Amino acid sequence: MPEPVSIAPPEPPPSASALRRALKRAVDGVALDVTESAVLLHARGEDLEGLLAAAGRVRAAHLADQGRVGVVTYSRKVFVPLTRLCRDRCHYCTFVTVPGKVHSLYLEREEVLEIARAGAAAGCKEALFTLGDRPEDRWPQARQWLDERGYGSTVDYVRACAIAVLEETGLLPHLNPGVLSWEELQRLKPVAPSMGMMLETTARRLWSEKGMPHYGSPDKEPAVRLRVLDDAGRVGVPFTTGILVGIGETLTERAESLHALRRCARQYRNIQEIIVQNFRAKPDTAMRSAPDADLEGLAATIAVARLLMPPGVSVQAPPNLVGDQHALVLRAGIDDWGGVSPVTPDHVNPERPWPRIDELAGWTRQAGFTLRERLTVYPKYVRGAEKWIDVRLHPHVTALATADGLAEPGAVVRGRDWQEPDGGLATVGRADLHTAIDTEGRTADRRGDFDSVYGDWDLLREQVPGAPTHTLPPTRRSDPAPQRLDTDVRAGLRLAADYPGALLEPAHTAAAMALLTAEGPALDTLTRLADELRADVVGDDITYVVNRNINFSNVCYVGC
Prior knowledge:
CATH superfamily of the largest domain: Aldolase class I
Radius of gyration: 27 Å
Distance between the termini: 55 Å
């Protein structure tokens, strides 16, 4: 039996006045900091009711912004447990097992297709691939299985199976293979409209300290998972992430996790939904004796998540983990139930089956909303497919989508060809630069998507030390140069006059940096010295070349 995991003691509750202040700021729509968010996570009773009401108003604005007023969504899916092997050792997980306890180390390709075909016959449109992180790094048997079938890694096998599902069944893959590198995200983007990975928590101690839930799990280091979220944003993958509530984190740590997700969502705008998932203890795990997450605390967390996330980011709670409290989580601000399968069990939580879709529709209707089916990729990304979805997937997505980007109820789910391009550039990141830059960027002083391509300007400004606190045109700067000591400037000018190459030496870094911000008389002297050096080295002739620019391609994955 695994050793039990220790859980952090509860934080002392905030004062009544602190809770009132934080709640008033939430009601007034004022941006919340981490401290205020943590205070709101303590809300119970009338305070919780006020918090839920504020979150409900923000959700209403979000739904109006997305063009689906009064609509709560779900995705009809099949669950494909490609492998239950993993190199991590999370102390609450029963999905992961060891080689001697599974019938097969991986699902064979035909087994994957059998699951997907059953889903297509039942009207499902999503194939959720869930699996352990890089089992071949821990288990030689997994490495051998992949080698025997010609795959270099589990990620390579995921990619091959996703293509098979697209071509032979028409279901849209949603990939959850765990931690991915930048290059792996690029390789998987053309075979899946969306991907996902739970952040779970930013509390590093839950990973680094012995006896904590993620101890011994290399892929659960918060910095590693945050880097994946950033890379997914840079690559332009519509992405699902979220937090796991009640695994031993303090409420302040929980608030910090939500703020980290808010930053990612604001910066790259590829986060399509945040899952707020409550911990449920499982037998035969190290956390078997840990209490289940409090559902009122879950509701407060959902509400704070809804208040923090920018417009366009959905908030989800899994309907099979909240007992009979579906009305509570709806009041807390969710607008999506996640994936629900009429065909396969929830292999991560097999003891808690998904509700029937008609049950889900009934709970949603009782709360005053209409339940509608979506695809694995959210409507705004379907409508903006030219920016977000690889062109090789466009026929697969549009065949199943309505004009507003939701799922077409009567769509025929069937396989469609997926073709690797014959040479040329793969689609990485934004997929529309060949049109947007040509038609807009060349006729103005900046690219046509200037307001959005770099992410949230306020967030970018916060990340740049010394940046101005007010909005300025991109060609102007008002922040003063860092103050330099006169001695550094004088030393730099002496070196520039006598030994200019010495400015590159580490010993003279301060002098070189001082010259980079020189102004007034110092700048005049510096430019005179540079001009004299130019005359000594190349003389007074100024040369130029006549050339012709061959515009080979404007497709680029960065947003310069």
